[in-house]
Design goal:
Helix content: 25-40%
Shape: globular
Order of helices and strands: EHEHEHEHHEHEEEEEHEHEHEHHEHEHH
Number of strands: 15
Structural class: alpha/beta
CATH architecture of the largest domain: Alpha-Beta Barrel
CATH topology of the largest domain: TIM Barrel
Radius of gyration: 23 Å
CATH superfamily of the largest domain: Aldolase class I
Number of helices: 14
CATH class of the largest domain: Alpha Beta
Distance between the termini: 64 Å
Strand order of the largest sheet: 2-1-3-4-5-6-7
Largest sheet: 7 strands, mixed
């Protein structure tokens, strides 16, 4: 059976030649899991530097040339409209092609997602490897019993939608093959950066009210072993000569002892490579940062979110501001670049709290600051608090598309003001970095 796994287009649709060279790891894991039994191919439009005015025509011609039996789509909420359109295009080309949707949006709102996309035949809620394997086996044999496939949402002959019980989360992540990074429909524009994304765990014990990442069914975080992680790093370096690595775990140092083991093993096996990661300010120590830097860490992204301890508690990210200051200081002392993510516009915030967060962000001496407007996503507590706010088809977290504050019409211009404050700060930090580089170059020239 031929399976075409599709990452819905975004940048590709603009026709300006812009690309996003990050492999969708969810699709890559599913592709690797199924490749031994099926012909798996990937259509990743946003990796192609397309220039033109017929993007959907290009996608249609690619799908038609592949002639897949099944098309699997993934989508976060912001990409659901694009995924829905791809599915409709697939059915126009061949009504017999089976379409399947998975990903964050499908897991958060399974019934809504299937109801809103008549061209999608099946929906996979939760982790997709086992559910999709059973679905394909049933389709291939002609003996599919959809009601028996855990994690599947499906339509019967009368069009009625059924949601099966959830599938238990995969426990032994080391048993999964490494992500499949080959079999691309459009391989010509692929850069080395495409191969440098990794994840080392699944699940998250934290319950931040704005986060749309679905928790595992048993709320348990599962980890790949240090040996398994470093073996994949070795393969990426040997096979694709990656110059850089990005750990896409939401909290890379969640289990600090395991993070230490990964870094020590990278050093022992000679597999150090410059890398970046995301984590929390309360999940680092000076000793861990020393080891991470030695293993190649050169940039850390902290999800800080707010400069108010009350707001941090309300979003379920409780920590003291001094803990944040201390962690940022430790990172900067070690020459590791440090970026902070912040969010304003929560329902309880007034103008003073929003300005307090912006001031705090600029006072931390971070190398860069990113500011986002609180946006309620399906499946989150913030969505429930906002009463299910209307979301535009194209979600942009850097603008206040959804106003869930009590500030009314005052919020959008206030957000613009604090965004300008952050932008000026980022420009000043960039100028400082350039000045330091120029000074270092001048000193090297004089010494030489």
């Amino acid at each position: 059976m031929k399976l075409l796994l599709v990452d819905p287009p975004d940048m590709f649709l603009r026709g300006l030649g812009h690309t996003r060279h990050v492999q969708p790891l969810g699709l890559a894991y599913i592709g690797a899991y199924l490749a031994g039994h099926h012909d798996v191919r990937f259509l990743l439009p946003d990796t192609r530097a397309y220039t033109g005015d017929d993007p959907w025509g290009e996608i249609a011609r690619a799908i038609e040339a592949e002639q897949p039996d099944v098309v699997g789509l993934t989508a976060v909420t912001s990409m659901y409209p694009s995924a829905r359109r791809v599915a409709a295009l697939v059915k126009q080309l061949n009504p017999q092609t089976v379409t399947v949707l998975g990903g964050t949006h499908a897991t958060s709102l399974p019934l809504h997602a299937l109801q809103g996309a008549p061209s999608i035949d099946y929906l996979v809620a939760g982790e997709g490897e086992e559910t999709l394997r059973e679905l394909l086996a049933g389709l291939e044999s002609g003996k599919l019993q959809p009601e028996a496939v855990l994690g599947l949402v499906w339509r019967d002959a009368q069009g009625e939608i059924h949601q099966n019980p959830p599938r238990p989360s995969l426990r032994e992540l080391d048993r999964l093959p490494f992500p499949l990074r080959e079999n691309l429909v459009w391989p010509d524009d692929i850069l080395p950066s495409f191969y440098q994304a990794m994840v080392t765990l699944r699940g998250c014990p934290y319950r931040c009210i704005y986060c749309a990442v679905p928790s595992s069914n048993d709320r348990k975080t599962r980890y790949r072993s240090a040996g398994n992680v470093v073996a994949e790093i070795a393969e990426l370096r040997a096979r694709y000569a990656i110059p850089y690595l990005f750990f896409h775990d939401s909290v890379f140092s969640l289990n600090r002892k395991r993070t230490e083991r990964i870094c020590r093993l990278m050093l022992e096996r000679g597999e150090t490579v410059p890398f970046a990661c995301q984590t929390r300010a309360d999940r680092v120590t000076p000793e861990l940062l020393d080891l991470m830097r030695e293993a190649g860490c050169h940039q850390i992204f902290f999800g800080i979110e707010s400069g108010d301890v009350g707001s941090l508690s309300k979003i379920r990210k409780a920590m003291e501001l001094e803990t944040i200051r201390e962690a940022v200081g430790w990172v900067r002392q070690r020459g590791i670049r440090c970026t902070g993510f912040f969010m304003v516009g929560f329902p309880w915030e007034d103008e003073a709290l929003i300005r307090q967060t912006a001031d705090f962000a600029c006072d931390l001496e971070l190398d860069a600051v990113s500011l986002f407007s609180a946006t309620p996503l399906p499946g989150t507590e913030l969505w429930d608090m906002s009463g299910g706010a209307h979301l535009p088809d194209s979600i942009d977290f850097t603008t206040p598309q959804c106003n869930i504050t009590r500030l009314g019409d005052r919020y959008p211009p206030l957000f613009a003001e604090v965004k300008q404050q952050i932008d000026r700060y980022n420009v000043s930090r960039m100028q400082l970095m350039v000045a330091k580089l120029q000074d270092a170059t001048r000193r090297n020239w004089l010494d030489g």
